[in-house]
Amino acid sequence: MLKIIIPTIMLMPLTWLSKKNMIWINTTTYSLLISLISLSLLNQPNNNSLNFSLMFFSDPLSAPLLVLTTWLLPLMLMASQHHLSKEPLIRKKLYITMLAMLQTFLIMTFTATELISFFFLFEATLVPTLIIITRWGNQTERLNAGLYFLFYTLVGSLPLLVALISIQNLTGSLNFLLIQYWNQALPDSWSNIFLWLACMMAFMVKMPMYGLHLWLPKAHVEAPIAGSMVLAAILLKLGGYGMLRITMMLNPQTNFMAYPFLMLSLWGMIMTSSICLRQTDLKSLIAYSSVSHMALVIVAVLIQTPWSYMGATALMIAHGLTSSMLFCLANSNYERTHSRTMILARGLQTLLPLMAAWWLLASLTNLALPPSINLIGELFVVMSSFSWSNITIILMGANITITALYSLYMLITTQRGKYTHHINSIKPSFTRENALMALHMTPLLLLSLNPKIILGFTY
Amino acid sequence: MNPLILTIILMTVFLGTMIVMASSHWLMIWIGFEMNLLAIIPILMKKYNPRAMEASTKYFLTQATASMLLMMAIIINLMHSGQWTITKVFNPTASIIMTLALAMKLGLTPFHFWVPEVTQGISLTSGLILLTWQKLAPMSILYQISPSINLNILLTMAVLSILVGGWGGLNQTQLRKIMAYSSIAHMGWMTAILVYNPTLTMLNMLIYIMMTLTMFMLFIHSSSTTTLSLSHTWNKAPLITTLILITLLSMGGLPPLSGFMPKWMIIQELTKNSSIILPTLMAIMALLNLYFYTRLTYSTSLTMFPSTNNMKMKWQFETKQITLLPPLIIASSLLLPLTPMLSILD
């Protein structure tokens, strides 16, 4: 695992020592190389995990997330080039350093064996993200957004620290490789109920679950493009990954403790999808759509069946790529019109037809069109929740319909119809932007040929 | 001040604390405290204005009261045990009175009222000495009598201090008062773990002193005592803003910075001793502290705070050279991977 971590750490000296005209080239190239190295992890030979050392391991759940993380860094760097072009050199280097630091922490989080080390790095990802959002965001609301982001996550995760230490006290070790063999049922008591709550709330806030999701629209909207991309694609998945790992230890309380959260998530996905239909702000629409998709993942994780775990993992990877791509598309709009209002730049298909093709593909994958992996994820979740309780099919069906409605609404508003006359002087699409969209879309389409690698450890 | 006089006074302060920390006779400890107190009064009064006089008077009165309480506790201990050696305290009454006296010296709630007012009235350098060096002596006595301290009183004071330190600092814009409330909260953390594992108290004290030293040196470098004047640092020395950001986030206890280490260790020790609600509560209350540190970073480093045009020319004046700042910055932000080394503190 050090073959991935050390090069990522060394990206930081690379940026500081590069010449002015080489910083973007150097960092993008080397981060692409690092992502190529991480692809070798997808080869999980047997039913168990690949253990690299006492501290790092990768299993069929964390490998696709790891590949997604390393894949996203060059994409983030490519997307940030335009809005940073006018900044002084030192600030560009600081931005790239923040991204590289965040990347290091994320890689270490996904491969950590000790749960305390996982927690520690989970919290550590907050600091670079906070700096990226509040320092390089564009509107005054970014300060508030940073505060909400930081404090929601911290209030949720400090009880997790206490819970992890008390579990270590009980079992002697928090090493994940050991715990899966030790696993025994938690005795039924009030304090174990609080233990369950303490363990889960951190990830519920991070996912985010419907009642605790207030930080997400703020943070996603106010962040610069790289911040939005990494938030939507990876940081939300940290919550899902943590939940998948920790629910292993929390049986049998999950049988009854999960009900309120299941209800909140089932209801929340309908509510947030419906709110998407009423949004005027493009990034806010994509942010609420993230909440809605993540609510599906929460439902899947709490049901705890093999199919639902497969669906959750597939949905996380698929949503990561799709959501990040949608944010890049929204950013390409923002860079031209400097406004996030959707109706301000309509009818773009006439002016930028290739970008319209990317918009079409992104919207289609967002609404889970077959045979994309989004569909595989959603389908598995819907099927497993139907087997858990037949009535949920109504809510799930309604959610899929409303998702299709707002995705098409977003597509039609921005792309179709007569263009607004004030945008006929926008710059045509850069090759960089087209490359960015292609690099998002290609893994998504290729994975539909072999979804086995993203189906997680219950395949 | 005349350099010779300053040297003598600083040596007396130093000697007083050393006598407290190194003595085994209760009377010598009391003498050390008094020496320390008397010698620090001129340091607090470096700037001769009524505000500093008021601050010094308040400090003298509270510390003298605390010393008298300490003397009473020593006498009661003498009465019940017949000897002056500092081992454990032999009588619960003496122990309680001694704990209260030392809490008054440290600035724990409910004896915290003097800390913000005294810190505000004095210059930055004196405030630095007040909030770091002066905490060493009482804490060393608490460390030595830790087996016989009444747990209920100490934990109540600790939790209340964390609460007061968090809530009190929320409405402040003066940097010295912010550091004072931060000191109250950190003292609360330190005393919470005193009965369970005094080594962690020392660890927390060490990290706290390093971080506070760094913060004060950064403030002295930019000669700023209010949030507003700190927000001009991006004009003068942009690197200082980054350092302020890192140190403030470290004080707030965010991983991966070293300020997280004492909090993590303390939560671990408390949880292993089967108190679960207490560390959760303490950790959540520490977020109040983090809020006003983050607010400070917002005005200083994460935004280019609006300033009048003549403020933007501040870089033309010569900057001070601060020795010892780089190692302090490293120590206050990057020490977390060295956590296993805290076994050397035993």
Automatic annotation (TrEMBL), chain A:
Keywords: Electron transport, Membrane, Mitochondrion, NAD, Respiratory chain, Translocase, Transmembrane, Transmembrane helix, Transport, Ubiquinone. The chain crosses the membrane at residues 21-41, 61-80, 92-110, 116-133, 145-167, 193-216, 223-244, 256-277, 284-303, 309-330, 351-369, 389-412. GO terms for cellular component: mitochondrial membrane. It catalyses: a ubiquinone + NADH + 5 H(+)(in) = a ubiquinol + NAD(+) + 4 H(+)(out). GO terms for biological process: ATP synthesis coupled electron transport; electron transport coupled proton transport. It is a multi-pass membrane protein. Residues 112-397 form the NADH:quinone oxidoreductase/Mrp antiporter transmembrane domain. Coiled coil: none annotated. It comes from the Eukaryota. Its EC number is 7.1.1.2. It is found in: Mitochondrion membrane. GO terms for molecular function: NADH dehydrogenase (ubiquinone) activity; NADH dehydrogenase activity; ubiquinone binding. Residues 1-109 form the NADH:ubiquinone oxidoreductase chain 4 N-terminal domain. It holds the Pfam family Oxidored_q5_N. Core subunit of the mitochondrial membrane respiratory chain NADH dehydrogenase (Complex I) which catalyzes electron transfer from NADH through the respiratory chain, using ubiquinone as an electron acceptor. Essential for the catalytic activity and assembly of complex I. Belongs to the complex I subunit 4 family. This is NADH-ubiquinone oxidoreductase chain 4. The gene is nad4.
UniProtKB/TrEMBL annotation, chain B:
Residues 23-285 form the NADH:quinone oxidoreductase/Mrp antiporter transmembrane domain. Pfam families: NADH_dehy_S2_C (PF06444), Proton_antipo_M (PF00361). GO terms for cellular component: mitochondrial inner membrane. Its main location: mitochondrion. It is found in: Mitochondrion inner membrane. It is an enzyme of class 7 (translocase). GO terms for biological process: mitochondrial electron transport, NADH to ubiquinone. GO terms for molecular function: NADH dehydrogenase (ubiquinone) activity. Residues 290-342 form the NADH dehydrogenase subunit 2 C-terminal domain. InterPro entries: Complex_I_Subunit_2, NADH_DH_su2_C, NADH_UbQ_OxRdtase_chain2, ND/Mrp_TM. Keywords: Electron transport, Membrane, Mitochondrion, Mitochondrion inner membrane, NAD, Respiratory chain, Translocase, Transmembrane, Transmembrane helix, Transport, Ubiquinone. The chain crosses the membrane at residues 5-21, 27-45, 57-76, 96-115, 151-171, 202-221, 233-254, 274-294, 322-345. It catalyses: a ubiquinone + NADH + 5 H(+)(in) = a ubiquinol + NAD(+) + 4 H(+)(out). It is a multi-pass membrane protein. Its EC number is 7.1.1.2. Core subunit of respiratory chain NADH dehydrogenase (Complex I) which is composed of 45 different subunits. Interacts with TMEM242. Belongs to the complex I subunit 2 family. Core subunit of the mitochondrial membrane respiratory chain NADH dehydrogenase (Complex I) which catalyzes electron transfer from NADH through the respiratory chain, using ubiquinone as an electron acceptor. Essential for the catalytic activity and assembly of complex I. This is NADH-ubiquinone oxidoreductase chain 2. The gene is ND2.
